[in-house]
Amino acid sequence: MSTYPHGLTADASFEITRPNVPTLDAILGHAFKALDHGFVRVIDYMGDDAAVVQMARVSYGEGTETPSDDERLIRYLMRHWHTSPFEGCEIKLHVKLPIFVARQWIRHRTANVNEYSGRYSVMSDKFYVPSGSVLAPQSKSNKQGREGGYSESDKDVLTRCLTDTMKEGHEAYRAMIEVDGYDLARELARTVLPLSTYTEFYWKIDLHNLLHFLRLRADSHAQYEIRAYADIIQALVEMWTPATYRAWVDYRRDAVTFSRMEMEALRKWIAATYPTDPEYGGSGPVDLLEGVSDRERKEFIARFAG
Ligand SMILES: Cc1cc2nc3c(=O)[nH]c(=O)nc-3n(C[C@H](O)[C@H](O)[C@H](O)COP(=O)(O)OP(=O)(O)OC[C@H]3O[C@@H](n4cnc5c(N)ncnc54)[C@H](O)[C@@H]3O)c2cc1C
User: Fold this and answer.
1) Which residues contact 24 (CB under 8 A, 6 or more apart)?
2) In the structure, what pLDDT confidence band is assigned to residue 1 with cuts at 50, 70 and 90?
3) 5 exposed, middle or buried (CB, 10 Å; 0-12, 13-18, 19+)?
4) What residues contact residue 75 under an 8 Å CB cut-off, 6+ apart?
5) Residue 289: per-residue pLDDT
6) What is the pLDDT of residues 165-199, one digit of tens each?
7) Any bridge partners for residue 111, and if so which?
8) Whose CA is nearest to atom 6 of ligand 1?
9) Which CATH class for the 18-128+203-255 domain?
10) Is residue 265 within a helix (H) or strand (E), and if so which, with residue range?
11) Cα of 146 to ligand 1 centre, how many Å?
12) What global pTM score does this model have?
């Protein structure tokens, strides 16, 4: 037994070392560029793939039959929505992003945030101007999107219009806080700034909720500008927890769900397309499945058995 301050005693025979991920350690603080003036940088992290496994194993207790292979366990957890072990890992990012992207980002309530204060400090003079390649008209089929493109001359006109209007807002802001005799409070002057103005925050989130964020924001339905950040964060997650990332890609990002009606249609279609095999209840192109375990094969069959 060892003794510690406040009269604490502890059995120190069980020692562990703090997990560290050399790939992520090597890029701590590096600013990965996003859009025209934004970035994402990793400030700190806690845990790794092994920490997910360590957290999961407490569920089963010593001596209980468990999957021996760590990656297999991670894939099992992901496939069966056993999500709490992923909450054992955390990451803290420093993000610089336009205000309109921050508004979408901040809707993810399961993170801890501290943002640059426009009351206390002078707002950045940097604002986002979409590049010509992402300028597009309002989509006709998706009210929340853009589609198509513009001629080079239209792009020039629109870029000038966006830039001039944003510049005007910033010039008015600077004038109101700097010109003698006005000295307007920063908390009021900022109201003329465009939504394209860059802000910054520290954002700390656990791995489970980060993957949920990525599922929504790295998706093709998300706005391009937030996707630009989500794509960087996906790469960071792959460096940090590669086995969890692979499981997430397979069972979340690139997976789809089917409604009851769609499942019924699929069952009928599969039964009609493939010869009846009594072992599989007449429902299975299981032999087409590649790279999955026997257990997953059985789960797939069960889903189509009806
Ligand atoms: C493509 C797209 C379009 C969108 N369009 C709009 C829009 O037009 N208007 C708009 O307002 N929003 C819009 N959103 C935002 C969206 O509705 C969600 O608010 C946002 O994606 C955050 O998701 P979340 O609540 O699941 O995440 P988080 O806040 O991180 O929460 C994660 C999960 O925790 C649980 N949770 C967290 N807080 C609570 C709580 N207080 N009560 C109960 N459960 C909780 C929920 O299960 C939730 O799914 C859009 C999002 C996307 C991706």
Assistant:
1) 42, 45, 236, 239, 240
2) low
3) exposed
4) 243, 246, 247, 250, 251
5) 74
6) 999 999 999 999 988 778 999 999 999 999 999 99
7) 205
8) 104
9) alpha beta
10) helix 260-273
11) 22
12) 0.90
